[in-house]
C-alpha cells in the first residue's frame, strides 16, 4: 500500500509539474508567435516601404485562445486587389504545447518541442471558390514543429484547384512547400514544387499554361544593425501563352532569380531572367539571359515616390486609356520625391543581356550612376537630365548572322533564307555603314559593336572624346 501510495503521489506530482510546464511553454509559444508575426511585418515594411501596412499588406493574429495543453489561433493575411479593395486569407492553427506534444509523440518524434502546429486555411471571400471545388475541404494544410532552440520545420500541402466561371477556367495541380527556420527563427530556407497552373478564357480565346514549377527562397540575418540577405528563385519547365489572334508564345527552361541585401534603408539587388528557349509559333528565337542590378537604393524614398504617384493618379480618377496631366503642385511633389531617391546616388545596370540563336549571339551592358542635380528647383526636370546622370557606360555588340536570322523570322521565314535573309543583310549593312561614318560604331568579323561612356558633360565613343551636342548630332544623322 505504501509503495502504491508513493507511486500515485509521484504520478500526481509529475502530472502537476507537466501541467504547469505545458502552461508555461504555451505562454512562451504565444510570445514567440507574436514576435514572429511582428518580424514578418517589419520585413515587409523594410523590403517594400514604411507605407506597406497602411496600404493593406499585413499579417495579423485575429484570435488567440490559449489553454493549458494547447492553443487555437487564427491568422489573417491582409492585402489589396488591383482595384484597391481589401482581400483577406484566413488560417486556423491548433497548437499543441510542449515539451512533449501528444501529436509529435504519436508520429514518432520524441525530442522536446516548444510546440506542434496543425494549421489549415479556412473560408474567406477570396478562397470560397477553392473550398467549393473541394466540397468544403481545406485547400491548404500545414504541419510545423518548433524547437526551444529557435529552429523549426514546416510542411505545407496545397490541394488541386479547378474553377470555372463565365467562360474562364483556372486549374492548379496543387503541390508541397517545405520551410526550415533557424537562427532564432530569423533565417529560413523555403522550397515549393507544383506540377501545373493553367488559365483559359473561352470568351477571348486566350490561355496560359505553366508546367514544372519550382519556387525557392533563402533568407539570412546577421550583424547589428541587422543585414538581411535573401535569394529567391522561380523556375518553370514550360510556359505557353496562346491567343486567338496571334501565334502562340512558348518559353522553356524559364528561371527568375532575385538576390538582395538590405541594411537599414539601403538596398542592393540583382534580378536575372533566363529563357532557355523562345518560340513564336514555328520560329525558334534561341535563348535569352537578362540581368538587372541596383545599389545604393533608398527603400523609404523609393516607396514614398511610388505612393505619392499612386495617390495623385487616384485623385485624377483616370480611365484605362487616359493620360495623367499633372498640376504644377503635383509635379513639384513628385520632383521632390524623386530628388530624395537620388540623394543616395543609386546605381542601376543591365548586366548581362545575352541573346543567342543558331547563328550567334548579341550582348548589351549598361551601367548608370545617378545623382541629385544641383538645380533641383528647376521646373523642367528634363533640363536637369545631364546632371541626374552622373555617369553612363554602354557596351553593345550585334552579330550580323544572328540579326539576319532574327529579321527573317519576324518576316515569317523560320529558316532565315531567301529574300527575307537578303533584306535583313541589307538593313544591317545600311545601318552599320551609317553608324560607322558617324563614328558611333565599328564593324569587325560580322559583328557591329559600340562602347559609349558619358561623364562630366562629355561623351567618349569607342575611345574618341566628343561633346554632348556633337554626339547627339552624329546620332541624329545616323538614324535619319
UniProtKB/TrEMBL annotation:
Matching Pfam families: DUF945
Name by which UniProt lists this protein: Uncharacterized protein YdgA (DUF945 family)
Amino acid at each position: 500500500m505504501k509503495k502504491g501510495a508513493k507511486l500515485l503521489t509521484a504520478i500526481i506530482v509529475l502530472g502537476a509539474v507537466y501541467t504547469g510546464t505545458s502552461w508555461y511553454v504555451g505562454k512562451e509559444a504565444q510570445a514567440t508567435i507574436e514576435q514572429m508575426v511582428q518580424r514578418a511585418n517589419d520585413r515587409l515594411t523594410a523590403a517594400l516601404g514604411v507605407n506597406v501596412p497602411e496600404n493593406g499588406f499585413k499579417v495579423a493574429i485575429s484570435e488567440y485562445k490559449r489553454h493549458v495543453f494547447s492553443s487555437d489561433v487564427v491568422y489573417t493575411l491582409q492585402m489589396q486587389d488591383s482595384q484597391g479593395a481589401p482581400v483577406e486569407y484566413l488560417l486556423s492553427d491548433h497548437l499543441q504545447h510542449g515539451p512533449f506534444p501528444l501529436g509529435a509523440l504519436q508520429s514518432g518524434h520524441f525530442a522536446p518541442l516548444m510546440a506542434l502546429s496543425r494549421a489549415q486555411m479556412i473560408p474567406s471571400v477570396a478562397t470560397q471558390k477553392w473550398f467549393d471545388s473541394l466540397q468544403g475541404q481545406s485547400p491548404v494544410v500545414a504541419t510545423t514543429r518548433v524547437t526551444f532552440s529557435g529552429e523549426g520545420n514546416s510542411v505545407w500541402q496545397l490541394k488541386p484547384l479547378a474553377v470555372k466561371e463565365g467562360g474562364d477556367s483556372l486549374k492548379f495541380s496543387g503541390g508541397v512547400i517545405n520551410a526550415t527556420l533557424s537562427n532564432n527563427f530569423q533565417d529560413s530556407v523555403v522550397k515549393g514544387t507544383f506540377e501545373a497552373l493553367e488559365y483559359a478564357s473561352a470568351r477571348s480565346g486566350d490561355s496560359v499554361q505553366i508546367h514544372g514549377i519550382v519556387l525557392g527562397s533563402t533568407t539570412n540575418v546577421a550583424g547589428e544593425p541587422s543585414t538581411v540577405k535573401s535569394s529567391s528563385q522561380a523556375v518553370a519547365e514550360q510556359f505557353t501563352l496562346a491567343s486567338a489572334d496571334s501565334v502562340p508564345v512558348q518559353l522553356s527552361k524559364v528561371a527568375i532569380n532575385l538576390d538582395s541585401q538590405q541594411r537599414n534603408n539601403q538596398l542592393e539587388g540583382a534580378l536575372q531572367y533566363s529563357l532557355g528557349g523562345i518560340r513564336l509559333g514555328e520560329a525558334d528565337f534561341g535563348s535569352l539571359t537578362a540581368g538587372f542590378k541596383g545599389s545604393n537604393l533608398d527603400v523609404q524614398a523609393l516607396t514614398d515616390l511610388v505612393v505619392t504617384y499612386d495617390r495623385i493618379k487616384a485623385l485624377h480618377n483616370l480611365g484605362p486609356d487616359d493620360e495623367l496631366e499633372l498640376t504644377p503642385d503635383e509635379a513639384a511633389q513628385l520632383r521632390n520625391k524623386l530628388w530624395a531617391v537620388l540623394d543616395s546616388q543609386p546605381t542601376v545596370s543591365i548586366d548581362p543581356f545575352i541573346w543567342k540563336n543558331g547563328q550567334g549571339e548579341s550582348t548589351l551592358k549598361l551601367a548608370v550612376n545617378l545623382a541629385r542635380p544641383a538645380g533641383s528647383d528647376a521646373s523642367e526636370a528634363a533640363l536637369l537630365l545631364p546632371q541626374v546622370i552622373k555617369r553612363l557606360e554602354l557596351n553593345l555588340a550585334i552579330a550580323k548572322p544572328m540579326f539576319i536570322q532574327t529579321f527573317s523570322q519576324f518576316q515569317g521565314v523560320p529558316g532565315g533564307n531567301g529574300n527575307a535573309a537578303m533584306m535583313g543583310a541589307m538593313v544591317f549593312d545600311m545601318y552599320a555603314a551609317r553608324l560607322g561614318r558617324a563614328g558611333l560604331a565599328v564593324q569587325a568579323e560580322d559583328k557591329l559593336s559600340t562602347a559609349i561612356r558619358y561623364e562630366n558633360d562629355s561623351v567618349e565613343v569607342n575611345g574618341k572624346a566628343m561633346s554632348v551636342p556633337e554626339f547627339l548630332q552624329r546620332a541624329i544623322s545616323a538614324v535619319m
